[in-house]
Design brief:
By secondary structure, the chain is of the alpha+beta class. It has two domains: 36 residues, no CATH class; 146 residues, Nucleoside Triphosphate Pyrophosphohydrolase (Alpha-Beta Complex). It contains four helices and eleven strands, in the order E-E-E-E-E-E-E-H-H-E-E-E-E-H-H. Strands 4, 7, 8, 9 and 10 form a five-stranded mixed β-sheet that branches.
């Protein structure tokens, strides 16, 4: 079977730009020569998340945040956007971003952050990557920033890794797919050690 051919970009325009993302509307010609008007592409900065295990009991440090898109509070991993200055530093910058987000959202810090995977959040419509890290020795260093500049209210939860994997697999815990992928990657990394 032949490799699928790329689409041809005919024109592009900005549909919306605000804060930390931009909606691009592309006019494209597919490999079968069909024309697609206003194909939506969301331009985001890269993201990071961290599977952090508390040093004292090995439980996963999770956030509980309201997510307006689904209108519910859900469990997730600490993480966020990679800043422009961090992007310039490549892998070192990603690790700095992970350390920053872990401390800001949870108050925990780790001496060692290990990369465990890079994912595409939604290759059909998103331009960014998600880099995931594992911290096996997280300790509480400060109070978390309860309300950061985005207005997010964050509560913490602590769950054993095996229990969390089972809760995700069974559907008892719903979370963002990139967070679930990082949790499975962390479990596999730890099993291989």
């Amino acid at each position: 079977m032949a490799e699928p051919r790329s689409w041809r970009l005919l024109t592009t325009r900005v549909g919306y730009e605000g804060g930390w993302w931009r909606l691009r509307l592309d006019r494209c010609e597919t490999s079968s020569q069909a024309i697609i008007e206003n194909y939506p592409v969301l331009e985001y900065p890269d993201w990071i998340n961290i599977v952090a295990l508390r040093r004292d009991d090995g439980r996963v440090i999770l956030t509980r945040e309201y997510r307006h898109g689904i209108g519910r509070t859900v469990l997730g991993l600490p993480g966020g956007t990679v800043e422009q200055d961090e992007m310039k530093d490549g892998a070192v910058g990603l690790e700095k971003a992970a350390a920053r987000e872990l401390l800001e959202e949870t108050g925990f810090a780790s001496e060692r952050l290990m990369p465990i995977g890079t994912f595409l959040p939604n290759a059909a419509t998103h331009t960014n990557r998600l880099s995931s890290f594992l911290a096996v020795d997280a300790t509480l260093r400060q109070s978390p920033d309860a309300d950061d500049e985005s207005g997010d209210e964050i509560a913490l939860a602590f769950v054993g890794l095996d229990q969390l994997v089972e809760d995700i697999r069974s559907g008892r815990t719903l979370m963002e797919s990139g967070h679930a992928a990082a949790i499975y990657a962390a479990r596999d990394y730890l099993r291989a050690r």
